Amino acid sequence: QVQLVESGGGLVQAGGSLRLSCAASGSIVVIYDMGWYRQAPGNQRELVASITRGSSTDYADSVKGRFTISRDNAKNTVYLQMNSLKPEDTAVYYCSARIQTRIPPSIDNYWGQGTQVTVSS
Question: 3-state DSSP call for residue 74?
Answer without folding.
Answer: helix
